[in-house]
Amino acid sequence: RYDDGQYTSASKLSLTDGVEVILPNDAGTVYRSHTGIDYYEDGKVLADFENDTYLMTIVFKMSSANANQTYLELVLEGANGTPYDRIRDTITFPKGNDVAHDYHGMFQYYADANFANVGSQWKITAIGGTASVWDIIFFIQKVQNYG
């Protein structure tokens, strides 16, 4: 589990309408089941071997000044044409302008050769208005070992 220590309720990540950014996590606090197991580093989600399967939970708090027209797009971006961008979520703000909401998303994915070699990144975009996110946590579980 990787808990971001940079973007908190006192210092939120501001998302500009239509501008895609890497969903940051400085891994300020890390919980591991075993020393040496690292599935996230320097902004990238990592994998051990090709064809390994993972389950990743992403949680954060979010708000928008205009909840009626703003939503977020969260997408796992694959390098070199790998279609990981199908692993995504469209996130709406159910009520209230500037009301804090909790987001909890679970994603299952496998690692192709490129993912195992260079990793991948989660990207987030605010659409229709500005938004803020904070208290970001990545929880990554390896559920199948192929290698």
What does this entry look like structurally?
The chain has 147 residues and is mainly beta. The protein is 4% helix and 46% strand. It has one helix and twelve strands; from the N terminus they run ββββββββββαββ. It has one helix spanning 113-118; strands spanning 2-3, 13-15, 21-22, 29-30, 40-41, 44-45, 53-64, 71-77, 88-92, 101-110, 121-127, 131-144. The strands form three sheets. Strands 1, 2, 4, 7, 10 and 12 form a six-stranded antiparallel β-sheet that branches. Strands 3-11-8-9 form a four-stranded antiparallel β-sheet, with no helix packed on it. β5 and β6 form a beta hairpin. The model has no long low-confidence stretch (mean pLDDT 92).
Secondary-structure blueprint of this entry?
Blueprint: E1 2-3, E2 13-15, E3 21-22, E4 29-30, E5 40-41, E6 44-45, E7 53-64, E8 71-77, E9 88-92, E10 101-110, H1 113-118, E11 121-127, E12 131-144
Report the strand count.
12
Number of helices: 1
Rg, nearest Å: 15 Å
Q: Would you tell me the overall average pLDDT? A: 92
Fraction in beta strands: over 45%
Order of helices and strands: EEEEEEEEEEHEE
Q: State the share of residues found in helices, binned by percent.
A: under 10%
Structural class: mainly beta
Enumerate the spans where pLDDT stays under 50 for 5 or more consecutive residues. Answer: none
How is the biggest beta sheet arranged? 6 strands, antiparallel
Shape: globular
**Distance between the terminal alpha carbons, to the nearest Å?**
23 Å
